[in-house]
Amino acid sequence: MDSDSKAEAIKRAKVLMVGAGGIGCELLKTLVLSGFQEVHIIDMDTIEVSNLNRQFLFRQSHVGQSKAKVARDAVLKFVPQIKITPYHANVKDPDFNVEFFKQFNVVLNGLDNLDARRHVNRLCLAAEVPLVESGTTGFLGQVTVHIKGRTECYECQPKPTPKTYPVCTITSTPSKFIHCVVWAKDLLFAKLFGDKNQENDLFVPSNNASDSVKPTDNIIERGSDEDPEQYSRKIYDYVFGYNIQAALANEETWKNRSQPKPTFLRDVLPEKDILHNGILESNCLIDDLSLSAMPFLGLSNPQEVWNLAENSRVFLKALQLFLEKREKDIGNLTFDKDDQLAVEFVTAAANIRASSFGIPLHSLFDAKGIAGNIVHAVATTNAIIAGLIVIEAIKVLQADFQNCRMTYCLEHPSRKMLLMPVEPYEANKSCYVCSETPLLLVVNTRTSTLRDVVEKIIKNKLGMNLPMVMQGTTLIYEVGDDLEEDDVANYALNLDKILADLPAPVTSGTILTVEDFRQELKCHLNIKHRDDFDEEKEPDGMVLLGWTDGAISNGQSTSTDHQVAVGSTESEGIKVATEVSGMKRELNNSKTPQDVEDDNDEDDDLVLLDNHSETNKKQRLH
Ligand SMILES: Nc1ncnc2c1ncn2[C@@H]1O[C@H](COP(=O)(O)OP(=O)(O)OP(=O)(O)O)[C@@H](O)[C@H]1O
Ligand SMILES: [Zn+2]
Q1: Do 274 and 384 reside in the same domain of the chain?
Q2: What does pTM read for this prediction?
Q3: Which part of the chain is the Ubiquitin/SUMO-activating enzyme ubiquitin-like domain (predicted)?
Q4: ipTM computed for the complex
Q5: Judgement on whether residues 207 and 224 belong to the same structural domain of the protein
Q6: Is 25 considered catalytic here?
């Protein structure tokens, strides 16, 4: 390919960039400096202070503004002649449909979550537009090219699922600090500040009928005459004192474990400290995300490990500040690692619990990393990955498909290489996304409802947003804005019906057709009845089998009835696989600092995959 035709291909190209964060900023800069003339950018976020260290197109004064728009303005300052169209929106919005995608020559992803990546993959397949996918975690990174009919699609191979923990470990028997963080974040924080009606296993049921202390959900309700300090003290004693007493009452649990020690406020903080803690100063109101309990308590170093008394003061103060300064947020909050008060609250709560269970306490800095599942981003990795995306995009635009590579950016050299190019893999012939291979759903058709299947399988595992479900020629479920009222009522009724009792019964041997029109994705589920499921191993109470031998996991970080998952990582679901010395390896890229701590005995970050596993068998393109 001569350089003129290359320049011409670049000049003519119309490119869609999804994500204007760490990778996106680098990518936009590299695109325009490489001569690209027309770039559309979708990003749903606004700029946060924590982005500024690496998302170099943004400045302090831009905090709160649209990433896509500010990125455009910043780049136009040094290359004013370029056409850049920003969209401050979610790529899953209906406006970005197949027709929208068709106008582009190539789509470049700089996303941070599996859900959006899967959605873009499906639209690229439907629109037949090549996709260059990317991701980074710390020093690790990856760029892959997905071209319909030529390579595998993004979903041809299952993605690693974030670590989940059995609920009983989180609620009753934590043994690691991360268990306490998950409890503080996904149970306590969610119960106090999120949707109160949501089922949650925060309170341990006591099996001792005569027990006079029975924490209940009502405890969370704040009485009209209860001041924030009283309320915070009550919550403290219930969650760290009575709740652990209730857990201790289940004697079987402690036969082979050391018993935790309930923590009551009166034992930790003398009365005068509590009173001191209750004094609010008036000059503390800054913006919501920066509000902090630490300055009130003379604490300034996030890397210092607070003792139990300090953690208790932070807990009380943070809870009081939420009640007094952020009352409007209560009921709608989800944990956000950029929310200082939320991080302080979770750190303190996790530490107080850790202390009861004899687990070493951690600093706010460490707890934040674990709670946000953060592997600290490395700007240089993003820059390298952005460069590789542009290199692959140019090959795609020149139709130089045989030279396309998927490239891994490694932390340690392998065969003296830090950048490891691998030929793209062939499509998995039984991928339910890019082929029409049916999936198998093993389910108890006599106890599971249609809602279970829609929520746990069709939305959660298959990643469909607006699914339609058909049994033969009968439509049993559909969502959309243009439905008749009668239909909506009918579908709502169907959702709560047991599968076998549906108007068109779903039993062993039934084939369900599920379809998401927006993603132009259709697949078939062969239903097989089974009576029993293992609560720990099959927490959904049903198993989806299909294009791999194993059960399908979507890598989503949702908490289910039986599992509590750690939050998502910046590069959730990115799979890094290389062939090194004839071995197929996967870089474990979704590590929490705790995992890293746990994995310290490994030589490096490479985790060997079972070399004979069918699941990981891939075929090279020739
Ligand atoms: N569904 C989506 N639609 C549009 N943009 C998305 C979607 N999902 C994620 N993004 C964008 O992808 C970008 C990913 O960037 P990055 O990984 O640097 O994350 P970040 O949120 O900027 O940083 P961090 O998570 O480390 O604070 C973000 O700007 C985010 O808004
Ligand atoms: Zn596929």
Answers
A1: no
A2: 0.71
A3: 441-533
A4: 0.97
A5: yes
A6: no
